[in-house]
UniProtKB/TrEMBL annotation:
Signal found in the keyword field: yes
Domain of life: Bacteria
Name of this chain's protein: VCBS repeat-containing protein
Keyword terms: Signal
Length: 502
């Protein structure tokens, strides 16, 4: 199989063409784009062509420097639903032209920030934060419900993680593997980072970040994301009383950061009201933005659109009743519910509700509001269930699943139709529903690399297994395989499960 970038090619949502080049896709893929390509391929690899179209029109930060609009095409080969493409002509020579029609973005599962410590395109789990540890245990998914457990030493990093620091995951060096950063501990002047090297190993850095470390210890909300679209995860802070700025630490990829602290007008004060901070790409430019919602008496959703240099453009447009609905006990769920590449916001779980309100981003700070009925799903969401966003059928639109309520034997899923309405399924999952009600940590991810969101459970006392509910697109296939000591370690005091909802 060969990767081809085709001169003169455009896909829906791609703003410009680029020069052609050709590169092999390794038999054991070494880049995230290669790995994701394999997970999306349906059919003989020998026939396939990978086309990357470099564009500013995507939220897929994990493909950052390789290409932001992507489609895998091959003669006679069917594609994943979110990557349907019509091939008019193609060959494997540089400069060949290919007529391509494709959606604006890859599937929502592909867009999600996978917790993937070895870069194989499957979600993994890791543990940190317990006093006395000198390791970071990692469970690498084999794709069939089994995991390879590794427990490599990380020097002082394990002790630093046990100080109460905020644990943030992301790809801080842009190599396609998930790394772990720490911030928020009083007295620190650094941001420690554990860079994943595959095989459960980590390289530890502890670079100085000046005043940023002190700002992070004020109780500010720390957000990880790619604020300058360079393919590396950065850190931002907001929500501290008295601030008029939004500090950002831009990762250089080596454990050091460039610090910015630019004014954002009233946004900083609004963020300190107790509002929910909603990260996402609200204008589809590939940079992380921040929205606010959930404060009483608001009638707007403020957004700070990242310029990529530490500056932000602030909007504060009206959203009608949506702002008041967000100030109830409902859960605020970001996602791309219509597959247009822009982050939207849904609300789930308000007491007495029979609907799921969705605010669809227009890309300019304005939203189109829907409030469609979802039958019993709204009431189920108000039972205290865990609300899990993800792409459970691989169609590129964010869906919403529920789990964790005592007495259930199902996992209800509201599949987005893209227009604010949902198709609700409530299929049986056997004992998985009861296991989820034990207080276990719910870990969403793509554990078999098929582009659909799955659910894993860990953290319940007495377990020696790691249950996984693999989404089939219409239901779930449940496994419950032994995982040696990892199940016990995940119940340790103070432990943080990387990737878990909580």
């Amino acid at each position: 199989m060969r990767a081809v970038v085709v001169a003169g090619t455009r896909a829906t949502g791609c703003r410009r063409s680029i020069a052609a080049r050709k590169e092999p896709i390794n038999s054991r893929p070494s880049t995230l784009a290669d790995r994701r390509a394999r997970s999306m391929l349906r059919g003989p690899e020998s026939e396939a062509v990978m086309v990357f179209i470099h564009s500013g029109k995507s939220t897929n930060r994990r493909m950052g420097r390789l290409g932001l609009c992507a489609a895998l095409v091959a003669p006679g080969v069917a594609l994943a639903p979110a990557l349907e493409a019509e091939v008019e002509a193609a060959d494997n020579e540089p400069g060949a032209n290919l007529g391509l029609t494709a959606p604006n973005t890859p599937s929502a599962a592909a867009l999600a920030e996978l917790v993937d410590f070895n870069g194989d395109g499957r979600s993994d789990l890791a543990l940190t934060g317990t006093g006395g540890w000198v390791t970071v245990p990692v469970a690498l998914s084999a794709g069939d419900g089994t995991f390879t457990v590794l427990n490599e030493g990380v020097g002082d990093f394990a002790a630093w993680a046990a100080t109460g620091a905020r644990v943030l995951s992301g790809d801080f060096d842009g190599d396609g593997r998930t790394d772990i950063a720490l911030t928020g501990t009083s007295g620190w002047s650094t941001v420690p980072v554990a860079f994943a090297r595959g095989g459960g190993r980590f390289d530890i850095t502890n670079g100085s970040v000046g005043a940023f470390a002190n700002w992070a210890a004020t109780g500010a909300r720390a957000i990880s994301g790619d604020f300058n679209r360079d393919g590396r995860t950065d850190l931002a802070l907001t929500g501290t009383n008295g601030w008029s700025t939004l500090p950002v630490a831009f990762s250089r990829g080596d454990g050091t950061f460039d610090i910015s602290n630019q004014a954002v007008g009233d946004f900083a004060a609004w963020a300190a009201t107790g509002a929910t901070v909603v990260p996402g790409d609200f204008n589809r430019d590939g940079r992380m933005d921040l929205a606010l919602t959930g404060t009483h008496d608001w009638s707007t959703v403020p957004i700070a659109f990242s310029r990529g240099n530490g500056g932000f453009d602030i909007t504060n447009q009206g959203v009608g009743d949506f702002a008041a609905w967000a100030a109830t006990d409902a859960r605020v769920i970001p996602g791309d519910f219509n597959r247009d590449g822009r982050t939207d916001i849904a609300l789930v779980g308000g007491n007495g509700w029979s609907t799921v309100p969705v605010a669809f981003s227009r890309g300019n700070g304005a939203f189109d509001i829907t409030n469609s009925a979802v039958g019993d799903f709204a009431a189920w969401a108000a039972t205290g269930a865990e609300v899990v966003p993800g792409d459970f059928n691989g169609d590129g639109r964010t869906d919403i699943a529920l789990t964790g309520t005592s007495g259930w034997n199902t996992v209800p899923v509201a599949f987005s139709r893209g227009d604010g309405t949902f198709d609700v399924a409530n299929t049986g999952v056997g004992d998985f529903a009861a296991w989820a009600a034990t207080g276990a940590e719910v870990v969403p991810g793509d554990f078999n690399g098929d582009g659909r969101t799955d659910l894993a459970l860990t953290g319940t006392q007495g377990w020696s297994t790691l249950p996984v509910a693999f989404s089939t697109g219409t239901g779930f296939s449940v496994t419950n395989r032994p995982i040696t000591d990892f199940a016990t370690w995940s119940t340790a005091p103070g432990v943080k499960v990387i990737g878990a909802l909580r």
